[in-house]
Structures are given as structure tokens and as C-alpha cells.
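Recall the central idea of this unit: under ordinary conditions, the amino acid sequence of a chain determines the structure it adopts. In this exercise we apply that idea directly, starting from the sequence alone.
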Amino acid sequence: MGAVLVIDDDPHIRELAQTLLRGAGFETVGAGDGRQGLRALEQTAVDLCLVDIMMPLMDGVEFCRVARRHYPELPLLMLTAKGQLPDKAKAFAAGADDYLVKPFAGAELVMRTKALLRRYHKVVEQLARAGEVSLDALGHVAARGAASLDLPLKEFDLLFLLASHQGRTLTRRQIIDEVWGFDFAGNERTLDVHINRLRERFGDQAGFRIATVRGLGYRLEETP
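Accordingly, the structure predicted from this sequence is:
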């Protein structure tokens, strides 16, 4: 699956994040501040860094600046209790790719980690199934039996995400962040349009349906 370096001076948060990521199949390494994090990068190959902002000795912003210079292809996900826009702007200016505010939901942490790895073309789960439709994320290939399906990129990504979490409700915000990215400037109507296109494309004949969970989001369910 991949390896994640978790850098946080709070041992409880660090262990929680590592436990959640290990439960999702990732290997993890822990560090208590930015300096320890840089030493860990010299000693261990990792695919992504999860970095707290407020830390002693070297905070997360400075870590991002240094890491971005020496490891330009390393995804950086900020994890912090500071959720104001100026704090986010500072983190992004330092080289962070995404931002997650404490307290966080475990499922969102895992989803953002996987999304960021996909954005950097790192190895994550590549196969999923929605009823009779098989999906291969590596080549963006969709098929129903032996027949290939021509799906537009965003429709493929959306169906792959829902199929990867079959039976679980995903919020609208989670879906948009994962499929369109945290910096998406459009509105949620874009998501609705793509959901409707998938429903029109497959109807009730492909062994699955996309259910609307009112006030929350969407869920993919198998059908008889």
C-alpha cells in the first residue's frame, strides 16, 4: 500500500493516526517534531508525510519548507488544530498539498491520504468493483464482463471512489475533495451532475445503484 511518516508532538494523536493508517493497510513511521521527521526521511523511504503544524524545535511549516526543497515529489498533508484561512495559506505557501483540521474523522484521514497518493501517482488500491462493473484505477479502465466501457475521467474517478467504499455513506465534501481536489473552485452541483450521469449510464441493470443519503451524501449499494 505505501508508507506514511506521521509527525506530531502529541504521542496520543500520533499513535491514533498511525493506528488508523495501519488499519487501512499502510506502513507507518512516527516522529515527535520536524527535526525528527527530517532524520526519519533520511533513514526511511516513505510515500507521504502527515505533519502537525504546532510542534517544538521545528514546526510543521518549517518542516514543509525544508522537505519540499529536498523531496519535491513527496506528498505533504498538514494535520492541525488551527483551521483559520491565514494558517491554511501559510501551510500551502510552505509546500503543503492538503490540510486536515483536528479533531478529524478517521475515514477522512484515510481518504485524504489515498487521494493525495493518487494525485502523486503513488501506489494505492487499484481495483474496485461496482456490481458487474470492474474498475482498474492504474489505467482508468472500466469493463462489464469482457466489454470495455468508455467512461469520462471524472465519472470513472467518482464511481471508483464509491465502489471502493461500497455500502458506506460518503459525504458530499469528502467526495468533492477526493475526486476534484481540496482546491476545487466549483460548487456541489457539479457532483450532482456527475452522479446523475452515472445513474443514466448504468440504470438498474449493472448490479448496483447509487443511493442518495439526504442531507449527507451518496452511497453505492449492490442490487439483486
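The chain has two domains: 3-119, 127-222.
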